[in-house]
Amino acid sequence: MKLQIFETNDFLELCYLLIDESTLETAVVDPGMMKEHKRNEVCDFIESKGLKVKYILLTHAHLDHAAAAEDLAKKYGVEVYANMSDAELAQNLPDQAMRFRLPVNLKPLKFDKFLNDGDILMLGDERIEVIATPGHSMGGLMYYVPESGFACVGDTIFQGSIGRTDLPGGDFYTLINTIKEKVFALPDETVLFSGHGPSTTVLREKQMNPYVR
Ligand SMILES: [Zn+2]
Question: 54 pLDDT exceeds 90?
């Protein structure tokens, strides 16, 4: 599976396109674009490559990850997938924008499909495994692609750091437990693509991450 990365907004959030190269089926993970030119960047890429968007997948429903989810779902006639425990956060996108004093006009977001721990999504012949990762938000999910050896982990873990837990739905001990029990259960060589900043690997974080000892 091929990965295309876009920086989407002032939070430097990263939107990932997961592309099955043989069928061009594509999953859009965390489309946090808040401005039209940023949305266009992603959409122009999708259209210029002839990609067939199949899913909009959210690792969680903070606005910097979910702002363009509904726009893209409508545009490509697909559904927004996320965990039910983040449904309230999604409903509150306008409040989240106010809280950060962002001059963006967001509507409440409604998920079309609920994903749970252990669900499998197919992209071409490749499996995307859905793994529940609560802690940064209650409904946190990561998307693990075992054949390609990577996972999109949202804001659960970063290179040398972890997600903040002071936002609604966050809980520090739950997050640490998630990292130890779920993220570190993946093979050591798995590449972790976070919602912000550079990628890392499971092994690197096991050895270097100061928050998880
Ligand atoms: Zn977040």
Answer: yes
Domain count, the chain: 1
pLDDT tens, residue by residue, 67-87: 999 999 999 999 999 999 999
- The distance of Cα 25 from the centroid of its chain, to the nearest Å, equals 18
Distance in Å, CA 80 to ligand 1 centroid? 17
Give 204 Cα–ligand 1 centroid separation in angstroms: 22
State the distance from the centre of ligand 1 to the C-alpha of 40, rounded, in angstroms. 23
Q: Could you tell me the distance, in angstroms and rounded to a whole number, from the CA of residue 166 to the centre of ligand 1?
A: 10
Please check whether residue 213 lies inside any domain of the structure: no
The whole-model pTM stands at 0.97
CA nearest neighbour of 92 among 110, 113, 80, 74: 110
Q: Which domain holds residue 144?
A: 2-208
Residue closest to 30 by CA, chosen among 44, 42, 46: 42
For residues 183 and 142, is the Cβ–Cβ distance under 8 A? Answer: yes
Rounded average pLDDT over 123-141 = 98
Q: Tell me, in angstroms, the distance from the centre of ligand 1 to residue 62's CA.
A: 5
pLDDT at position 160 = 97
Q: Are strands 79-82 and 113-114 parallel, antiparallel or unpaired?
A: parallel
CA of 163 from ligand 1 middle (Å) equals 7
CATH, residue 109 = 3.60.15.10
Alpha carbon of 167 to ligand 1 centroid (Å):
8
**Above 90 in pLDDT, residue 33?**
yes
Evaluate if residue 168 carries a pLDDT over 90.
no
How far away, in angstroms, is 10 Cα from ligand 1 center?
A: 13
